[in-house]
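Anyone up for a design puzzle?
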């Protein structure tokens, strides 16, 4: 496999890992919150952390989707990825609008899970369409 193709497929795998990491963070952190301060951790549940994490996911996703589209000329991954980014971004940046808490945590968790799964699907499709491996036929 050539170097550029390997790098592009690596971005899709990184994107899937980031999206799944977001999902795990969002579902497990509420259970771990009471324990984290005792262990010396006090991060991961503030709006700035979520905004930075979203920006990393957005950056990796958009590079991966645009490069993949140039290779396989199929618009499904970028369309599905954009929808997932919009879903995930909506719950990420709503707390910054006027500084108000306008949605509750359980609803934001559910929307984050849906957005993360959509983005993971988009990366999988991008990888599938870009990879000429026999196991994707």
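Challenge accepted. My sequence:
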């Amino acid at each position: 496999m050539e170097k550029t193709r390997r790098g592009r497929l690596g971005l899709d795998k990184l994107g899937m890992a980031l999206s799944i990491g977001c999902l795990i963070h969002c579902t497990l952190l509420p259970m771990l919150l009471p324990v984290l301060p005792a262990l010396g951790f006090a991060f991961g549940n503030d709006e700035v952390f979520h905004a930075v994490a979203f920006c990393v996911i957005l950056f990796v996703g958009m590079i991966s989707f645009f490069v993949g589209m140039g290779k396989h000329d199929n618009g499904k991954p970028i369309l599905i990825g954009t929808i997932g980014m919009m879903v995930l971004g909506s719950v990420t940046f709503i707390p910054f609008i006027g500084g108000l808490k306008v949605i509750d945590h359980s609803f934001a968790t559910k929307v984050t899970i849906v957005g993360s799964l959509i983005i993971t699907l988009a990366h999988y499709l991008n990888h599938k369409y870009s990879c000429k491996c026999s196991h994707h036929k």
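A detail worth pointing out: The chain is about 75% helix and 0% strand.
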